[in-house]
Amino acid sequence: MSYLEEHYNNYDEEGRLLSQHGQVEYLTTMKYIQEYLSKVSEPTILEVGAGTGRYSVTLAKQGYPVSAVELVPHNLEILKSKLDGSEPITAIQGNALDLSVFPNASFSLTMLLGPMYHLYTREDKIKALAEAVRVTKPGGYIMVAYCMNEPTVIQYVFGSNHLHEVLEQNLLTSDWHCVSEPKEIFEQVRTEDIASLDAELPVERIKLIATDGATNYNRACIDAMDEETFGKWMEYHFTICERQDLIGASHHTLDILKK
């Protein structure tokens, strides 16, 4: 069993997105998904790394034709358990590095909302992105989620008192970039790393979004908010989530590209 499979077999990813603080990332991502789906006629969706189906199943239940690809069998089983057979969705096991099951220019929106968290070499990252671009129609959109470097340094290294541990394991570069490998599960990047990857592909960046912004620095506070206060937090978050001076401090980002 891989480190990745072991992690997701024992981690409640669904619960994370359903918590009030997790809802910020979900609601923000859905906001932009809906915005860009409205820009294409007869939209078709591919989600690569669909996880337990939080996005794919929701979109399929809204009537969008969806193809969902997920690497981890445990996650795929949960995704399929949410379907009653009426949804226009096909869910298969597969790898972001090889989407050869799909022809060129098949989808108007291709989403990678998890794979880039778990790819550790530049070669693999570019391969996954190139495959996503290949299967997207000209003029279509690609949405790619990333985990960001600075929140890990601020909250995990310093906030959770792991500094000596990560220094002993040589998990920080001299310029404070986290060093990741499969046993660490998550790969962290900076905004310049994302821009460098985009430059290798025939795409135009439309937006780079902070999908949770300041939320995960204040999880207990966010989870304790009443409905009205949480609504105001979302109002504030949507006001600042496109501010480029704040993007690198967000735990998660969404890179919106056009082919």
Structure explained in plain terms:
The structure is a single chain. The longest helix has 18 residues, at 20-37. Strands 1, 2, 3, 4, 5, 6, 7 and 8 form an eight-stranded mixed beta sheet that branches. It is globular and about 50 Å long. The chain is built from eleven helices and eight strands. The protein starts with a helix and ends with a strand. It has a single domain, classed as Rossmann fold. The protein has helices at residues 3-9, 13-18, 20-37, 56-61, 73-81, 122-134, 149-159, 163-168, 191-198, 219-224, 227-240, and strands at 45-48, 66-70, 89-93, 107-112, 136-148, 188-189, 204-210, 252-258. The chain has 259 residues and is an alpha/beta fold.
Summarize the structure.
Helices cover 40% and strands 19% of the residues. The chain has 259 residues and is α/β, with parallel strands linked by helices.
- CATH architecture designation: 3-Layer(aba) Sandwich
* Average of per-residue pLDDT values: 93
What is the top-level CATH class?
Alpha Beta
CATH topology: Rossmann fold
The number of distinct β-strands equals 8
Order of helices and strands: HHHEHEHEEHEHHEHEHHE
How many strands, which pairing sense, and closed or not: the largest β-sheet? 8 strands, mixed
The helix fraction, in percent, is: 40-55%
Question: Gap between N and C termini, in Å?
Answer: 36 Å
Overall shape:
globular
Radius of gyration: 18 Å
* Strand-residue proportion: 15-25%
